[in-house]
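Reviewer comment 2.1 asked that we show a complete input and output for one of the modelled complexes. We chose the adenosine-5'-triphosphate case, as it is the one discussed in the main text.
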Amino acid sequence: MCVGAVRPKLDLMILSARNLVMTYGIADTASHALAGGDLDIDAGSLAVMGPSGSGKSTLLHCLAGIQRPTAGSVVLRGTDLTSMSDRERTALRRTDFGFVFQSGQLVAELPAVENAALPLMLDGTGRKAAIRRAAGYLALVGLAGLEGRRPGELSGGQAQRVAIARALVTEPSVVFADEPTGALDQSTGEEILHVLVRATSQAGAALVVVTHDPAIARHCARTVVMRDGRIVAEYHARPPVPEPVEGPGPFEGPFLQRTA
Ligand SMILES: Nc1ncnc2c1ncn2[C@@H]1O[C@H](COP(=O)(O)OP(=O)(O)OP(=O)(O)O)[C@@H](O)[C@H]1O
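Response of the prediction step:
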């Protein structure tokens, strides 16, 4: 493991969804949460936006193998998740995906470093090695020195940093975050998103963030907008404009450029 170094990626396209359909209920009561559509996820950060009920969480759950779609495929580096058994998908989630939820969902009795090490210990890594690796990821998210604090002794933002370290500790291919800043104030939320984008990039993982907040989505390199179960728009952030070398010039902040 090399925390902080970019892991080489041989194949840029990590996850591909094709013709995704998710229907809840039947006949008159059917609700079409995903109405068919494609999405490719490669290295970098992707925000999924859209109004309430547009299908954001359902899309995330299908991409992450938590739910099996009614139709369509989700392929992780050549392996179709939709043709796997529940047991196989559960095993794949543990090794290939990391998750960050709205509130950290940390174990109150355990110190930060043990919370971050939990996925490794549950997967059979020895305690000492797991804790050493978790401490590296805590440092990556700016929590060096706070390894021994229990969740009750951490701020909301610090707790989310522990959750980010926990999501990265298994060295996943993709980190999925569902409204990861929803329980934080605006400035802490933006700070945490910045940490999440930077840490996942440094760990060599792709990031998929569901959010309703454009200020949060702006931290991601790419944004898709959903409506009625479909992706209806896609934007790419412009690369940051270099600082002018001499003299004051017009400031151009990062903004979104519509590409679809
Ligand atoms: N378990 C379920 N049973 C029936 N319908 C569901 C279920 N889960 C979601 N839905 C429906 O599917 C549609 C999409 O829901 P989803 O939660 O994916 O949307 P969302 O964009 O994430 O919404 P929010 O922003 O409010 O979380 C909605 O119409 C919702 O009511």
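Confidence is low (pLDDT under 50) at residues 1-11, 245-257. We note this here for comparison with the apo prediction described in Section 3.2.
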